[in-house]
């Protein structure tokens, strides 16, 4: 019988210890925050190849005749536009238009696969149960998931496992390789894949990639990479009290067809194109690190930093901040009682290793 | 297990102090501290000539994870700072007791050094923190 209060371990737990992982409790899972230096791991992903154990995330398969209608009701992006093996990124909204979670949905030959966050597992499963339609079933899949990311990631994978990532696998598409589902998706701003596979094969894959020189990378690097790529983190940049329109994911809302009444549509539609706040980027070239919760003062009004960190690729601090729509140019940030200047820029900050913000 | 050199003195706020031959005292943060902080990205050092008081803020060490104040282990005047850390803050992680030193003090009262924790007592402080 499992102890509800003890954190869970993924099937790769022992591999993390072997690789020198410093383990922390993340959303009820013991995960590696780094394996020695998160900056080195970050650089490995930007310049070569790194890998992340993301088995703590929640994989939910939805099947049945009502599966499409169900997801078209719950997801603010439109799964009907997907061809088989295509994927989309979107949000689950509540009735008030706040964000319950962000997710990726893959269209399978029969049904759909949803990948949602670790921290929202119980909430999303309950939400699915609450809104389930008569002719459908949904079930969490106990698979290992490994993200292999970086300019060399696909080469290393194909070197170890020829054919595992076909040359014609387009971004935001998936393919089967034996029992592996290989999706050309990721959370780093680099090329690469996320592979979902049975546990025993996942352990072998991890070991083989490690032997091939792919750098294990932990949660610390995952956060600096995604922030450089301008990608949101649920719980910081997205939450139940805030509209997707104020969170830089308005592009994921599929407004047409007009009569698709997805949950939350009526709450956010009045602000379509005129949301008073925006989620945008900050850079600070002076010494110091921008962090979540710091207050931002602009000539257009005040705002707040939702996610901040030091960018290893750029060598200075970057952040995502929710500011008044008209805010631009320079602003001030209160950092531990001192006022520092920062510059408002549109994310992403880095793409395919290149500095986009100067 | 983190490194705790036997011949140094320590404070519970995870700074170390080393008495030099010329009577000055070198100050830095311990292996335990750099490990807990993770990759250091900025260090704010005091100015040469600045008066540091024991248990008062003398500077800041900022890692990707968090910003942490550095406290004066003893009272004294800053006579040197390790400006290498401006360009190479990672030295704090790589060599916290050597090249990762923060500043040197001319102590007001060497007696204060005697009052600090020895290696064994500091190790106990760390062990207690872990439980």
Structure description:
- The complex is a heterodimer of chains A (358) and B (131).
- By secondary structure, chain A is α+β, with helices and mostly antiparallel strands.
- Chain A has 3 domains: 13-53 and 143-228, 2-Layer Sandwich (Gyrase A, domain 2), CATH 3.30.1360.120; 56-141 and 243-272, Aminomethyltransferase beta-barrel domains (Alpha-Beta Plaits); 276-355, Aminomethyltransferase beta-barrel domains (Elongation Factor Tu (Ef-tu), domain 3), CATH 2.40.30.
- Chain A is 20% helix and 33% strand.
- In chain A, the strands form 5 sheets. In chain A, strands 10-11-12-9-3-13 form a 6-stranded mixed beta sheet. In chain A, strands 14-17-16-15-18-19 form a 6-stranded antiparallel beta barrel. A 5-stranded antiparallel beta sheet of chain A has the order 5-6-7-4-8, covered by helices on one side.
- In chain A, a hairpin with a 5-residue loop joins strand 5 (87-93) and strand 6.
- In chain A, helix 2 (38-47) crosses helix 7.
- The model of chain A has no long low-confidence stretch (mean pLDDT 97).
- Chain B has 131 residues and is of the alpha+beta class.
- Chain B has one domain (9-123): OB fold (Dihydrolipoamide Acetyltransferase, E2P) (Beta Barrel).
- Chain B is 24% helix and 32% strand.
- Chain B has helices spanning 31-37, 84-87, 91-94, 111-115, 119-129, and strands at residues 9-10, 15-19, 25-29, 40-44, 51-52, 57-63, 67-71, 76-81, 103-107.
- In chain B, the strands form 2 sheets. A 6-stranded antiparallel beta sheet of chain B has the order 1-2-3-9-8-5. Chain B has a 3-stranded antiparallel beta sheet with strand order 4-6-7.
- Chain B starts with 8 loop residues before the first strand and ends with a helix.
């Amino acid at each position: 019988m499992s102890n509800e209060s003890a954190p869970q371990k993924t099937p790769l737990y022992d591999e993390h210890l072997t690789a020198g992982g410093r383990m922390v409790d993340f959303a009820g899972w013991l995960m590696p925050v780094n394996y020695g230096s998160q900056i080195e791991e970050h650089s490995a992903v930007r310049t070569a190849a790194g890998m992340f154990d993301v088995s703590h995330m929640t994989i939910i398969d939805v099947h049945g005749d009502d599966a499409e209608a169900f997801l078209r009701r719950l997801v603010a992006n439109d799964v009907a536009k997907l061809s088989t093996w295509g994927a989309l990124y979107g949000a689950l909204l509540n009735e008030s238009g706040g964000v319950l979670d962000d997710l990726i949905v893959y269209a399978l030959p029969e049904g759909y696969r949803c990948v949602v966050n670790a921290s929202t597992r119980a909430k999303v499963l309950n939400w699915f149960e609450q809104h389930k339609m008569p002719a459908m079933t949904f079930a969490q899949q106990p698979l290992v998931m490994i993200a292999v990311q970086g300019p060399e990631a696909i080469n290393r994978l194909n070197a170890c496992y020829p054919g595992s990532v076909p040359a014609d696998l387009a971004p935001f598409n998936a393919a089967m390789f034996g029992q592996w589902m290989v999706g050309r998706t990721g959370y780093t701003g680099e090329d690469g894949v996320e592979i979902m596979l049975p546990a025993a094969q996942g352990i072998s894959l991890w070991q083989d990639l490690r032997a091939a020189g792919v750098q294990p990378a932990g949660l610390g690097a995952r956060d600096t990479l995604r922030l450089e790529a301008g990608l949101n983190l649920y719980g910081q940049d997205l939450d139940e009290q805030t509209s997707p329109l104020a969170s830089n994911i308005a592009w994921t809302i599929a407004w047409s067809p007009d009569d698709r009444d997805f949950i939350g549509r009526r709450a956010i539609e009045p602000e379509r194109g005129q949301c008073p706040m925006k989620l945008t980027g900050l850079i600070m070239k002076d010494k110091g690190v921008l962090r979540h919760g710091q207050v931002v003062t602009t000539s257009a009004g005040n705002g707040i930093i939702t996610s901040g960190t030091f960018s290893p690729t750029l060598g200075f601090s970057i952040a995502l901040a929710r500011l008044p729509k008209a805010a631009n140019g320079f602003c001030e940030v209160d950092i531990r009682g001192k006022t520092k200047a920062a510059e408002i820029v549109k994310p992403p900050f880095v793409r395919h290793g290149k500095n986009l913000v100067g | 297990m983190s490194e705790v050199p036997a011949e140094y003195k320590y404070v519970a706020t995870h700074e170390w102090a080393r008495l030099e031959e010329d009577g000055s005292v070198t100050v830095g943060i311990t292996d335990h501290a750099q490990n807990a902080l993770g990759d250091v990205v900025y260090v704010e050092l005091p100015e040469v000539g600045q008066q540091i008081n024991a248990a008062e803020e003398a500077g800041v060490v900022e890692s990707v994870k968090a910003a942490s104040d550095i406290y004066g282990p003893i009272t004294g005047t800053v006579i040197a700072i390790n400006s290498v850390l401006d360009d190479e803050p990672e030295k704090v992680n790589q060599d916290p007791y050597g090249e990762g030193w923060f500043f040197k003090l001319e102590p007001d009262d060497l007696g204060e050094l005697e009052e600090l924790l020895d290696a064994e007592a500091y190790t106990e402080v760390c062990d207690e923190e872990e439980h």
